[in-house]
Amino acid sequence: MRRPVNAAERLALRAAYLPKDARCILEHTNGSACYAYERAGALYAIGFYGTAAKSSFHHRYRTEDARNLAIWNFRESVEQSVARRSKAQADRKAAVCTLKVGDIVNTSWGYDQTNVDFFVVTRVSKSSAWVRPIASEVETTGNMSGRTWPSMPIRTTGDETMHRASGTSLSIDGHHASLTTGDTYCSWYA
After folding, report:
1. What is the DSSP string of 82-147?
2. What is the pLDDT of residue 58?
3. How many other β-carbons are positioned within 10 Å of the β-carbon of residue 47?
4. Nearest to 18, CA basis, from 40, 36, 39
5. What's CA 150's distance to the chain center, in Å?
6. Which has the closest alpha carbon to 21: 54, 48, 51, 44?
7. CB atoms within 10 A of CB 19
8. Residues 45, 78: Cα–Cα separation, whole Å
9. SS3 (DSSP) at 50
10. Is the peptide bond before 153 cis (omega within 30 degrees of 0)?
11. Taking the CB of residue 91, how many other CB atoms lie within 10 A of it?
12. Which of 21, 86, 152, 185 has CA 20 to 30 A from 75's CA?
């Protein structure tokens, strides 16, 4: 069977999964829903988050109060999740880039070693920064480790790329980049 790829297909699969006598107890504007039904005197509830075809929970309850509590808790968790997502989205839209042209940012990344890359900010907008990679210098201070800093005068080593920025932070090639404040630890074990 092909995996559902859009909300309409997921909702159709959800409807096919539900017992015929299940009644909708809760519907949310984001597509979340909770259903209740009975089988041979036993009480059941099934809940779906968003437009998911797979249920978030599907349980049997001893009492009507226990089932109602589970439905209430599910509704609360949906409301909290929607509020968190709305706040995060608003925060992302309101984020302002405070970097300036000429600022130097660096990434520090690696598994067995600590790689440090430096970039100079070449252009900025309200929510983005354009950067170019620059050369760096290294001083060995230990066994295959040391301190690194950007070369002066600045020598660019690559093309300009644009990245979303928030404050003085941005993501470059999947690595967190922040304003450079001095020399940084690096290593080259591998």
Report:
1. HHHHHHHHHHHHH--B---TT-EEEEEE-SSS-EEEEEEEEEE-SSEEEEEEE-EEEEEEETTEEE
2. 95
3. 24
4. 36
5. 30
6. 44
7. 12
8. 16
9. coil
10. yes
11. 10
12. 21
Tokens at residue 12, please? Answer: 């159709």
What is the reported pLDDT for 1? 59
Nearest one of 116, 118, 112 to 135, comparing CA atoms: 118
Q: Please give the DSSP secondary-structure letter assigned to residue 167.
A: B
What is the distance in angstroms between the CA of the first residue and the CA of the last residue of the chain?
45
Q: What confidence tier does 181 reach under pLDDT thresholds 50, 70, 90?
A: confident
Could you tell me the CA-to-CA distances from 72 to 77, 94, 166 in Å, in that order? 9, 33, 37
Structure tokens at 176: 């967190």
What is the spatial distance between Cα 166 and Cα 102, in angstroms, rounded to a whole number? 17
Let me know how long the chain is: 190
Cα distance between residue 166 and residue 84, in whole Å: 19
Contact 109, 173 (CB under 8 A): no
> Please, are residues 75 and 140 in contact by the beta-carbon 8 Å criterion?
no
Tens of pLDDT, residues 2-18? 676 788 888 888 888 89
Identity of the residue numbered 186: C
